[in-house]
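To whoever picks this up:

The parser on our side crashed when reading a file containing two proteins. I've narrowed it down to the boundary between the first structure block and the second sequence. Both blocks are reproduced below exactly, byte for byte. First block:
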Amino acid sequence: MNHSQIFTVTQPTQIQFGTGAISNLAETVKSFNGSNVFLVVDPGLVEAGLISPITAPLTKANIPFTIYDNVDPEPGLKLADKGTKIAKKAKCDCVVGVGGGSAMDVAKAIAILLTNGGKAVDYLGLGLIKEPGVPKIMVPTSSGTGAEVTFTAVFINEKTGSKGGMNGDPLYPDATILDPELTMSLPPHVTAFTGIDALTHALEAYTSTQAHTISEMYSLEAITLIADNLPAAYANGDNLEARSAMLMGSLLGGKALATAGVGLVHAMAYPMGGMFGIPHGLANAVLLPYVVDYNLIGDMEKFAVLARVLGQNTDDLTLRESASLCVDALFNLNDDVGIPATLKDLDIPFDAIPEMAEIALTVTRPVENNPRKPNLKEVIAIYETAFSGAMPF
């Protein structure tokens, strides 16, 4: 333990976890004095007829609600602005976000805009939100983003094409309801890349320069849960035990990143989403082993610990050999759950790499958190490595 380190932990979100917990939604809304709900949902849930477990408790309690399903996998700022206008017109006083990170981010932004005014673009950055939002309750239906317990909402700026986040304590959800049964219908490929996304949050928080005793505790437990259960959840989506473990792993990964931040994987994933529409979790998943390989010399002791947590036998190995096994474990896990091996597999054009690298380095907080400080040449080299699958580091 670093006794000289000063750190702050702010995690105000009420957490309800367990099979059938969604039945408490109406009671939770009422506990925050909500009487008219703005329901932000992933459109896929509506299309698949999976929204009834969410709406049934509200209907039973005679709580009116307005459904807003205009949510993209990589949402733009205008979606938050449009949703805010609809919520105001409907006189909604509580926002519930249901789905993956995109729906929850849009929900968090709408809750803030309802009380702060202006447009979503006005709050991109850190600490620009002055007033608390209306009560906001998050209901994740995937095990990936951890957005249900973070103070960030990420969007694509339509004018610039870049991704950026609103960041500030008012964005912390007031409550989250995590019901593993709501994740059972998640398709295998989405289970895979959202699961590796959650793993990335926990791993990058663990090796962050801002890591501390509490964040490390969250990170290691999250990594253990995800590594032990993702293959089973991917192979059989009806495995409730694996689904429950994945949802808890995602939650703990979110709590870790909220207190210690993420690193270079996230910075490099942002332009892949902004320029080519690659889902954030998938971009993270493909990049993760390559960035870790680059980062090894930044904190070999921690990467050796991670190798062991990921199931590698490091007996009688040098520190460097042990740390390197972390990379092997990540490649193996990706392969087990069908994650594409390279950027080429995602149809990312090779000639876009220099521009992506320049954009990645502008995502300053994750770059600053990274255990190894990258320059432009090195980021380009990582992208090129991830494009070809070669390992030069």
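<<boundary where parser fails>>
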Amino acid sequence: MKVLRHALVLALGLAAAGGALAQVKVGIIAPFSGPFAHYGALMKAGVEAYVANQGGKLAGQTVEFVYRDEGGPNPANTRTLAQELVVKDKVDYIGGIVFSPNAYAVAPIITESKTPMVIFNAATSDITTKSDYYLRTSYTLWQVTVPVAEYAARKGLKKVVTAVMDYAPGVDAETAFKAQFTKQGGQVVESIRMPLATTDFAPFAQRIKASGAQAVYVFLPGGPPNLGFVKAYTQNGLREAGIQFLGTAETDEFDLQKFGDSAVGLNTAFHYSGAHDSPANKSFVAALAKQNKDVVANYASVGAWDGMYVIHKMIEATGGKRDGDKAIAAAKTLKWESPRGPVSIDPNSRHIVQNVYLREVVKGPGGLLVNKETQNFGPHGDHGLVK
């Protein structure tokens, strides 16, 4: 089992101040090895950039981070990691989690110990219902899919195929699009669920092309599946056939430059773009670059940055003392200006409320691809819990 430890007080050169012991401990669970390790690197950079940007302390408290490697979708292992963080490491807060199945597994641990946990990524709607000590600063598939379904209907699209990876977030995405699109008078002519182990997307592209649909709504996890599907979309002539591409995180900044010109013109609806034009985002991008020049501003790093804002405010509310109930109560009242725009925590779902933007991949300065925000659909909560 891989364990990564990092006392931030040392990293920031504060050991000279008498080697002060950390007053608050935060556990971070993320993939630091395997095919999804980039998530861990992005989250770690977001976490540490936030704290460095605060001068190395949160609400006057020194903080130690204990990093644990979830690797990939592995609920049993992640539950063990959370148990160790709570019992052995005695952390006050936990953050992170990329995979929804892993998040479900942690719920009993944080409930019993009353340890607030801020989810930086896992996007299945009902996760926060599994424990009163969950908060989330990422997004849900319902939250970003309902606006793109409404957009498709307004554009006059009548027939759409949904093509999603076959696990909980993919099912959420499929259900959300179908529910909202049919409500607007559209028809989902075929619902394709692709196995998580899929590497060859050509057969699915051919099914989409033969379906008679005007567009395909896609959900894929970050990394190789995104690249593989877009390659199949291009090489099998879907664009030339007039089948529009609609998605959410598929043109993620981490992979964006790898797509090349095949990504230009693709539309996604999402809560963040690294090209978002605001002072808060410029500060965030600069803080990330100062921490690690190789890290990109994307949904994983911004989820961690805002997650640390929430933990910061919980530490402030409790004076650095361990009090999960008081911390959660304080978090429910939060509103702030995020790098993604104005956000707040919904007191009922404990999930972030945020703007959702229509983004189009375009060539920016120096020929680099960027997700240009072309429409603001306004603030959205998690539609999956009110459907």
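After patching the parser it read the second block fine. The domain at 142-270+355-385 is CATH 3.40.50.2300 (Rossmann fold). The two ends are 40 Å apart (CA to CA).
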